[in-house]
Amino acid sequence: MFLRTVVVITALLAGVSVVAARAQRPDAFGQSRDHPAIAYSSGPVTDQVSALNERLRSGAARLAFDPETGYLRGALDALGIAVDSQVLVFSQTSSQAAMIDKSNPRAVYFSDTAAIGWVRRGSVLELAAQDPRQGTIFYTLHQSSTATPQFQRDNNCLRCHLSWDTRAVPGPLVLTTHPRKNEREYASGGAVDHREPIRNRWGGWFVTGSRVPARHMGNRAMLHPDAADPEHTPPAPKLASVGGQFDAQGYPSPHSDIVALLVLEHQAHLTNLLTRAGWEARYAAYDVGSPSRAGEGAAADDARGARVRGAVDEMVDYMLFVDEVAL
Questions:
Q1: Three-class SS of residue 239?
Q2: pLDDT value for 326
Q3: What does the angle CA 230 – CA 171 – CA 236 come to, to the nearest 5 degrees?
Q4: DSSP characters over 304-318
Q5: Among 100, 135, 134, which residue's Cα sits nearest to residue 117?
Q6: Is the pTM of this model over 0.85?
Q7: What pLDDT was estimated at residue 173?
Q8: 294 alpha carbon, distance to own chain's centre
Q9: Is the pLDDT confidence value at 88 over 60?
């Protein structure tokens, strides 16, 4: 619980700093998510999960319920998410943190436009879907059988999923949480993607595969007396699968494949850059020529344009792996 507390407090403080100092960061969205140009909380959405909700309400779609995994299989099938995308994380960095550890990791499945988090015996499925206009929308689905299940939008997720790491827009992130010697030690780590050296990545994750780099932070207990910083951590345990690591009853796959993990961490940050670029453009174009903008002048318009260009430049550089570390 200490780790969870540290992570939650850090996220809350990050949220406060985002609110207090948005305009001071040229690389993050500078306005409220509920500015009239954005209307994140109240604007219409057309993401995959909202569309599935409509089909469930009309009876055009049904979700199968399994006593062991709940709606997991049904949601994967309905959203077109492959089981092979499964990655397993055992750090306590979820709203269902109390149920997560190395013997009961959280499973994450994803496609280009949606992701599902499943905790065995958890009360809800956790979902994120990318809306073409509004960016990432978060949902939960209660894991109890009902005739017409409905995904509920959940903005409580933004306590952790709206920060400087997401460029001050709602979005996903992949965290590395480095092991500690004991519960009294301060937790360390942060968001990672293809710009971070592999030796620093994947603390709190299972990493499986036949060609995994020797030095990374995965496959290690969160608490052990020999815990060290990434520079001094010895080679990670090699795993072809998670067989024998924990009771895998209910998990659709025995893998937390390194390729899926590399794709997820790259895609997570790109998702945020796409959202930020769209929001900056909408804010820059908001009320052009209206009386509310009359006093701003050309300098303000130039500044808005510069923020759009900066967001697009960063997005394109990231898509082209400009700052990728050597593999």
A1: coil
A2: 87
A3: 20
A4: HHHHHHHHHHHHHHH
A5: 100
A6: yes
A7: 95
A8: 39
A9: yes
